[in-house]
Structures are given as structure tokens and as C-alpha cells.
Amino acid sequence: MTTTTSQSSALTAELRDAATAALGRIGAELPEAPAEGGLTVSSPLSGEPMVTLPEATAADVEAAVARAHEAFLTWRSVPAPVRGRVVKRLGELLTEHKADLAGLVTIEAGKITSEALGEVQEMIDVCDLAVGLSRSLGGRTMPSERPGHRLMEQWHPLGVVGVISAFNFPVAVWSWNTAVALVCGDTVVWKPSEATPLSALASNALLRRALTEAGFPAEVSTVVVGGRAAGEALVADRRVALLSATGSERMGQQVAPVVAARGGRYLLELGGNNAAVVAPSADLDLAVRGIVFAAAGTAGQRCTTMRRLIVHSSIVDDVVARLVRAYEGLPVGDPRAEGTLVGPLIDTGSAEKMRASLEEAVADGGTVVVGGDRVEVDGAPGAAYVHPAIVRMPRQTDVVRRETFAPILYVMTYETLDEAIAMHNDVPQGLSSSIFTLDAREAETFLSEAGSDCGIVNVNIGTSGAEIGGAFGGEKSTGGGRESGSDAWKQYMRRATNTVNYSTELPLAQGVNFG
Ligand code: NAD
């Protein structure tokens, strides 16, 4: 017992040293622990407390929003292409510090190195997208029914954007919001997950460097470290013009009515319950590779993780046998180690929820065909490592229709495509979906209005791993928000419709005659 404790403490000390060194190279200071209280941050690699940080009070959040609002009053009038240059510089700094920031993501969120580097790359990519936007944001001109009149729309900066993010994308979600919000002329106050404040402080330090180098106030972007109470203060603040919140469906249900009641805007990115349909014509080698990455990657802790597999009954035994072989070879362990494909769950509470869901599935008639057990990792007895699980289900029961944020893939069967699509859509969430098929009719049906009801619909790739060029988000209880690419920028701006009369007459619209 004593040996285990000292070994695990050695791991925690190593992680704390690595995090402190990475923060130092990035130019972000590790705040001093408060004399009492504060926010204790654990690493999922050891499952032990790693650092304690000062926690923002409601008054601190209020003050941060006040400063962000003050900064907005000047930032909004900086030309968009000049704002874009700051975002370009952020992209350069992220590129320079990619390994350090990814290292922090691994230490705090438990992502394997390759996925953590991918998350930082996504930040760099969205900076590129936003720089392009900074020279192309534009409104339309419409024909006026009145002679000598011009009818057009302009897009103006919105104000302070509040960002609340989840632990599983501790930095990318902020960048999707912030890179776009900044070129749109908004300022940002970010309340990161209480589990991942260090990578947040590091990311914001890079942006603040880019801002101050260019002579702009650092308050254009602020981080408030705290838990739910700090989030609630941000949500309630009337000066937060747009509240962009990423997290569980429960959180979205709490946040949305508060923002709506004060007349604010919200953008919600909430839980998913993503499925793939596997048709008889599918290329099974490709399908199995896509399914394993989407279902077991990130230890099942992506909003887009594949949680349900709806397979044609004629091929289900073959598909499950192939998946079981792949799952049996999945290396689970320290996410920093080369070759590891599955890191830890965020905490033991998640492992407990996984166990409870598996028990419920079995009680519903399901059979666990592989995985589901805890994995002991040397020197980390407090961590929550698990073998990803596959469960064959006789039908889609309640547990299948809920999001359990852990690597469980439920397999059901279908006979007709209509039946598969009905089962696919029969869940509260609507984030991501895919079909594996080589039949064009099946693919197009799945993509059609009568097909998947999700915000993301793929053919012959898994449900996870979206690119930033498209708008990202989902329907139904996933919240309806869209972030990053396409025209998602419109949510970060306000539209003004302008009519200009350059004639000598004053004709009224709709032919109205007023004296
Ligand atoms: P969570 O809901 O527990 O917490 C998310 C964030 O919300 C945290 O910063 C938390 O402090 C804050 N929060 C919680 N309750 C709040 C309240 N009442 N008011 C204000 N803030 C509040 O989620 P989590 O466990 O960190 O993340 C996992 C969840 O996030 C999963 O459901 C996952 O699907 C979802 N997620 C969705 C997306 C997406 O884009 N759709 C992306 C990533 C994660």
C-alpha cells in the first residue's frame, strides 16, 4: 500500500512538473494556490490532485465581463482585417507551442499524444479560417421596390461572447468560438471546464501575447477559472451578448432558459448519441477501421463518439467478430506512451457510470461481447482506465438512448433501411451520424430529408473527427448550435438592415399614401 502511494505520488509530481514547465515555456504563470479553498485540479493519468488554483467568485466574473465590455468598445472599431492579423499571430504562436499545449491537454484531459496534437492543430486550422473570414465577412444588397433607394444589410460586432467549455475538448472549442468571435469584433470571457484550467490559461496567454504585441488590450480575451458557480455568473450577466456553451444536455437545459429570460443569445453544443448504419454492401475493412476509431478513440469521450451501431442482420456476426478482434488488440494505458490508443477516463465517477450502464444493458437483455472491465496501470491506482466495450442489444432500450460518456458501443440489427433510419433517429440527441454502404441509393436516402436527423451526416467515414471548414453542431437535445466553419460566424454578429434614400422623393413601401 505504502509503495503504491509513493509510486502514484511520484507520477503526480512528474505530471505537475511537466505541466509547470510547459506553462513556463508558453509564457503562462501557474497561479499561486490560495491560502484556503480554491479549485483542485487532478490529472486523469494518476487520478490524484495535482494543483490547486484560485477560483473565480461571481464578483470576479462580473469584473471580467465589465473589462471585456470596455475592451469591446474599442475592439469593435478595429478594421476586421487588422483583427484578423491578431488571429493569424495566434495561429503562429499555437504552431510554435503545439507540443507544449498538447502536452497540457494530455495531462489534464487524458488524450493520447496524437489526438492532443490533433486538437491543437484544429485550433491552428480555425485561426486560418478566421483570418480568411476577416477579409470576406459581408452582407447582401437586395433590390428595393422604391426608386432611388438602396436596401442592404450590414453585419456588426455583437459584444461580449461568453464561452463555457467541456473537459473533453479543453482548448479547441474555445478556439472555434474565439478565433471567429475576434474577427467579428467581439471580445471573449471563457469559463473552461473545472477539470482543465491549465490548458485554458496557456491558450489564453498565447492570445494575450498576440493582442499586446499588436498594441491591443489583453482584456479582449479573459479566462475565469472556476466551476459551475462561475459558469452561472457568466450565463446570468446581461452584458454577455452571446453565451456559447458546450457540455452535457443537462447543462444546456439549465443554461438556455436563463439566457433566454434576459433576452440574450445562446449557442449550445451538447451531448450526442451518435450511430452508424452498416449496410450489406459496406466495405467492411474500411467500416471496421472507421467504427473502432469513432467508438474507442478518445476513450469514448468525444461528443461525436460512436455509441450505437445498427447493422444489417445478414452481416452482423461478421461485423461483431471483426470488431471484437480489433478491440482485443487495443492498447490501453498511459496516453503519453507511444503505441497507446486508449487513455484514461476523466475520473473514477465516469468509470462508475460506465459500469452502471453496462449492468443496465445486461438487465435489458444485452450481452457484453468484449471489454467493459477496469485496467490497472502501474503507479496510478486512482486513475480510471477501462477496456472499451461492445454490447449486443436485442433492441434500443433506455440505456442505449442515453449518452454514457465512456467507450460503450451498443450493436443492434435491422432488416430494411427504413427500419434502420427509424431506429437511428429514435434518440433525444441529434449530433453526428454515418452510413457505411457502397449503394448510392442507400447513401442518398440517409443524406436526404427522410434520412438521418443529425447536424452531421457522413458516408463511409465514422461519426467523429469533423473538419473546421463545415459548420459543427447538432439538432434536438444536442442544442441546435453551429460553430466554426461555413456561415457559423453570423451567430457572432448582429445584422442591421439599412435602407438609403438617394432620391428627391419620399415614396413609402407597399404603396402607402400618407397625405
Ligand atoms: P458538463 O456539462 O458537466 O460541463 C460543461 C461545462 O459547463 C463546464 O465548464 C461546467 O463547469 C459548466 N456548467 C455545468 N453546469 C452549469 C450551469 N448550470 N451553468 C453554467 N455552467 C455550467 O460536461 P463535461 O462533463 O465537461 O463534458 C462532457 C459533455 O459535453 C458530454 O455530454 C459531451 O457530449 C458534451 N460535449 C459536446 C460537444 C458538442 O460540440 N456538441 C463538444 C464537447 C463535449
TrEMBL record:
Keywords for the protein's UniProt record, in alphabetical order: NAD, Oxidoreductase
Pfam families: Aldedh
CDD domains noted in UniProt: ALDH_F7_AASADH
Catalytic residues (positions): E269
Taxonomy, superkingdom: Bacteria
InterPro entries listed in its UniProt record: Ald_DH/histidinol_DH, Ald_DH_C, Ald_DH_CS_GLU, Ald_DH_N, Aldehyde_DH_dom, ALDH7A1-like
GO molecular function: aldehyde dehydrogenase (NAD+) activity
Quaternary assembly: Homotetramer.
Family statement drawn from the similarity comment of this UniProt entry: Belongs to the aldehyde dehydrogenase family.
Protein name: aldehyde dehydrogenase (NAD(+))
Source organism per UniProt: Isoptericola variabilis (strain 225)
